[in-house]
Amino acid sequence: MSEVQMQTILLVEDEALIALAGKKALERLGYSVYIVNSGEAAVETIQTVPGIDLVLMDIDLGKGIDGTQAAARILKDHDLPIVFVSSHSEREVVEKTEKITSYGYIVKSSSITVFDASIKMAFRLFSKNCELLETRNKLKTTLDVIPDLMFVVDLEGYFVDFHNRPDVHGTAIPPEKIIGSHLRDIFPADETAFHLALYRRCIETGQNQTHSYELYTEGARRVFDLQLAKLDGQHVLAIIHDITELKLAETRIKSLLEEKEILLKEVHHRIKNSMSTVASLLGIQAAGLTDTPAAKALEDARSHVMSMMLLYEKLYQSSNFRDISLAGYLPSLIDEVLGNFPNRTMIRVQKDIQDFSLDARRLQPLGIIITELLTNVMKYAFRGRDGGQVQVSATRTDGRVSVVIQDDGNGMPESVSFENSTGFGFQLVQALVLQLEGTICMERDKGTRFVVDFPA
Q: What letter would DSSP give residue 344?
């Protein structure tokens, strides 16, 4: 039986169908899976069922304690990786979980491949954290009992006394030859001069000195931490600790964190590719229809998918995977939307986008709003005309974002408004503006002007 097949997962999910589907998918990957439907049941299961290796914890669990509260109770008495699962991707929700544990956060809509990769990452990170904790405990125990190496060195750099445990090394010369030797017998000239200056400073000031250095000893290069304390006017006590394993553990943890960043990039890249496939299918289906309303609906859907695909492309290229600059996102989105119309070459476009960032949670609805409004402009504003102008601006002032889309076209009929519209497009725009906790207004003056305003 492989290592993966022996690992047991506790799946905490209050939706029965989702829990059952998740259990079957994980079991196909070789995991053993327990299911509970509440935070209280999760805490009890961890206390009573031996052999749980990892917890997949939903955040919203209905009545009773939520997933974050259950995780906090579990971690009081048990050290194991907990990966949160939720349909929420808001920054404040993710940050709330990171204050409890940081082994992973998976959006429910992710594929089973992402779940599997995140679970494996959590197991690896947990293993490395255990190694690091074990290394630190060993070092602390050693330092609490007796230092690794102890030397008494005089003002000229000669060793006058020495003590070490038989199993501790790091002197670069045989222990029996240390007393009477000089610093230059261990270090190169520049390092010897630095150590002598450090020892003399310790004696002259009476203050403890510290220094870390590398030394090639017994066939390997190792890292040591040096602590100096004044004994008298001619001698210092040098206490040396071998910190090689600690440094190696820190390097491994850093490597794991870098691997996590690569995984996040891969997730965004795959989502973008999946959206590209959906957009292509919608385009092919629309091209094959003779029913104009149906073809129009498919093309509108394709535009919305393209706006979200562009967002994930920017996330994939972003350094923090959460915030994106509007100056880098909106111009590309505007060009993408307008490029779908045959009259694009006759329309002048002016973009005035201030350079500030928004999180992906708000950029997604904003991108769909802009796509829908620009699509409406290109379809209706310039009918019967040889050309025209479209202006798009985005600014942030006093904690609020204002996005303006304006054309000099035929103008919107007085009878049309967001409140009484029966069309899906305007209804969608109004719903997304409410999601942003913002407002939208339509002004008619030598064309049409849409103003979207929401908190930054």
A: G
- With residues binned 3-state (H G I as helix, E B as strand, rest as coil), the percentages for the chain, rounded to 5, are 50, 25, 25
Q: Tens digits of per-residue pLDDT, 266-299? A: 665 566 666 667 767 776 776 767 667 776 677 6
State percent of the chain over pLDDT 70: 82
**Cα 125 to Cα 104: distance, rounded to the nearest angstrom:** 10
d(CA 311, CA 221): 47
Contacts of 438 (CB under 8 A, 6+ apart): 452, 453, 454, 455
pTM over 0.90: no
Q: Which of 242, 263, 283 is the last residue of a domain?
A: 242
Instruction: Name the burial class of residue 236, with classes exposed (0-12), middle (13-18) and buried (19+) by CB atoms within 10 angstroms of its CB.
Output: buried
Number of domains within the chain: 3
For residues 253 and 129, what is the distance between their CA atoms, to the nearest angstrom?
A: 8
Higher-scoring residue by pLDDT: 288, 38:
38
Distances (CA, A) of 451 to 63, 186, 355, 433, 443: 41, 74, 19, 11, 8
* Residue 26: domain span: 4-143
Beta strands, E only, 167-219 = 209-217
Average pLDDT on 40-52 reads 93
